[in-house]
Amino acid sequence: MNQQQTVVVVGGGVIGLSAAWQLARSGRAVRVVDSGQRAASWVAGGMLAPIAEAWPGEEELLELGAASLARWPEFAAELAAASGLPSGLRTEGTLVVGVDGADRADLDRLAAHLAHVGRSVTPLGGRELRRREPSLGPAVRRGLEVPGDLAVDNRLALAALRAAAVNLGVEFCDGRAVRVRPGEVELDEDVLRCDVAVIAAGAHSAELHPALAGRVRPVKGEVLRLRARPGALPPPSRTVRGPVHGRQVYLVPRDEGGLVVGATQHDVGFDTDTTLGGVRDLIADAERLVPGLTEYALVEASAGLRPGTHDNLPLLGELEPGVLAATGHHRNGFLLAPLTADAVVAELDGREPPEPVRAAAPGRDTDTGGPPCRS
Amino acid sequence: MNQQQTVVVVGGGVIGLSAAWQLARSGRAVRVVDSGQRAASWVAGGMLAPIAEAWPGEEELLELGAASLARWPEFAAELAAASGLPSGLRTEGTLVVGVDGADRADLDRLAAHLAHVGRSVTPLGGRELRRREPSLGPAVRRGLEVPGDLAVDNRLALAALRAAAVNLGVEFCDGRAVRVRPGEVELDEDVLRCDVAVIAAGAHSAELHPALAGRVRPVKGEVLRLRARPGALPPPSRTVRGPVHGRQVYLVPRDEGGLVVGATQHDVGFDTDTTLGGVRDLIADAERLVPGLTEYALVEASAGLRPGTHDNLPLLGELEPGVLAATGHHRNGFLLAPLTADAVVAELDGREPPEPVRAAAPGRDTDTGGPPCRS
């Protein structure tokens, strides 16, 4: 490893900051290009939920997520120590619940799939659910307990990551990257030279390098931020997520009565409007799970652009010598940040990345008829 | 009139700014105390709608509102000229519509009441309504056309009023007034001397002078601000207001596809939280009137505190020598601003205020068993 190696990380979201921090810890000189646009990370719910989000056919993503989730407690402890700030990690676990018959069938399918891949979860009835979370409404009649699926306060984590990076000498450059080549990152009005460039620009990554063209698309997610008002029932202590009449919704608690409600999914291009219909559906679904939310304050309604890929796996690895991709994390940026940062450092060290990361190699499509890739 | 008279206006909302501007035009030296808190005026829908809001038993308020509405076109023209900015006045008129049978009965009662007080309005069926406003949904089956009820973009008007005041030398003092006595306005950390003080502090007025104690209460109103997105149906060109299943809702168009949706009414003290239940109801009612709003962007959800009085009339006049009240305008701050400013100037000039203002005299309760009053 070259102790003098210079790295430019394109993107100041959770992936870029995690990579920058870990690269700085490895002794490299790191700069982060940050467009100043609020990244998807700023809007995110911060669920660390590979089990609750498992899906038949996405076994590699489950393994990747589970491996990164296993890294989180240590990652969070190191982050808190390095930053002097709270990491935001919450360890209360997750309940997956359903309302109608079709939702219950969804839960049964999820439980069967998890049993099939060796990750059994506990089914619970309405009474058992309300014993755990008294704020759940009468419509909630079936659920699964997933104690290992955690959550993180995304904004606390981002602040801690930035502070940890700054403490290790990481520099931040305001600007918008327009192209990444070996040895240089071209900005709107500047060019940054470097030994290695890491593309962690989320939904904006596709335009930065030809090997990413057409392989990362923006997937809009609308999110509400609530706060319990005096006299209102406290929010659930665990993450509660549903299908509610077939729609996915999640409620992720924060400190001091905060609650994040998400998230819609729309393939609508680079559009971060929060739509009235999206907000209406989120409110309806959240109130169906926790009726007392009607008395909560609506603090914020916002939308972020997740970086989606065709198979929901990220793009993690070398695109060409001197250019790495760490993007396409879709709904899983916070979950996959620790392992992604490990993989980036390993790659630059010339070591093998963690085993589950192989499935996310940018070249995976070359043999399968997927989009073209130059790596 | 003493050309050197110094006036301190407490409050930088529409009433305070209108009074300050007109007082400065009359040659007085004016300072405005502005707490920097966003006033109810900032949140307001800006309806100028005395007819649509007429209510049996509130004939004096109707006369006051109608007289002030008649002043608006000239007031707006002078404001635009004095500020070099748009006044925000919109002259497209108002439709009052209803959805269910009870709503239609409400409309019939309103029409009968208006006919009784000599202000007939035109009843319209669903087809006629949709011919005027094609965005109205199929649930809207009955309405009244009130072409004389107008609206103003509250934020444009506030900016223009402030600019007009500044152009005439009005000074603005940051600070929170805590007490008003003849000759002085006491702030948190300062005392301003003056010949006359005008209390235009909206919902915060009651604490400033003993004659207002218990006579002005905060009435929270939650308001949404929407914007038509590309491809969405344009908003109505007129103000559209309902009862929707018995709940009052209004949609007030702004330039460039903007739309203000209001407003809830809650007597909850000094609380400006936007509640989830309030937002949910506003969305539901607005979509019932104009279904295409589902595609609109939700730009802002906010709440303001209207200054309510026991009879919905403002408190307009001298409290004691050297102290004037111009507060308690409840839902009608923008509507009543021109006549209120006229009345304040007339009072200081020693002239009779406009006739309909008499009903708003702060002393009106002394004879009727209402709250105590020292004026």
Short summary of the structure?
The structure is a homodimer of 375-residue chains. With 375 residues, chain A is of the alpha+beta class. Chain A is built from eight helices and 20 strands.
Explain what you see.
Chain A is α+β, with helices and mostly antiparallel strands and about 375 residues long. The first copy, chain A, is about 30% helix and about 30% strand. Chain A has eight helices and 20 strands. The first copy, chain A, has helices spanning about 15-25, 40-45, 60-85, 100-115, 125-130, 155-165, 275-290, 335-350, and strands at about 5-10, 30-35, 45-50, 90, 95-100, 120-125, 140-145, 150, 170-175, 175-180, 185, 190-195, 195-200, 215-225, 240-245, 245-255, 260, 295-310, 315-320, 325. In chain A, strands 6-7-5-15-16-17-14-18 form an eight-stranded mixed beta sheet, sandwiched between helices. In chain A, a hairpin with a 2-residue loop joins strand 10 and strand 11 (about 185). In chain A, helix 1 packs parallel to helix 6, helix 1 (about 15-25) runs parallel beside helix 8 (about 335-350) and helix 3 (about 60-85) packs across helix 6. Residues about 370-375 of chain A have low confidence and may be disordered.
Give the end-to-end Cα distance of chain A, rounded to a whole number of Å. Answer: 22 Å
Query: What pattern of helices and strands is seen along the backbone of chain A?
Result: EHEHEHEEHEHEEHEEEEEEEEEHEEEH
Task: Give the low-pLDDT segments of chain A.
Answer: 368-375
Approximate shape of chain A: globular
**Structural class of the secondary structure composition of chain A?**
alpha+beta
Count all strands of chain A and give the number. Answer: 20
The interface involving the most residues is between: A-B, 23 and 22 residues
What percentage of residues of chain A falls in helices of 4 or more residues?
25-40%
Beta-strand residue percentage of chain A: 25-35%
The oligomeric state is homodimer
Total helical elements of chain A = 8
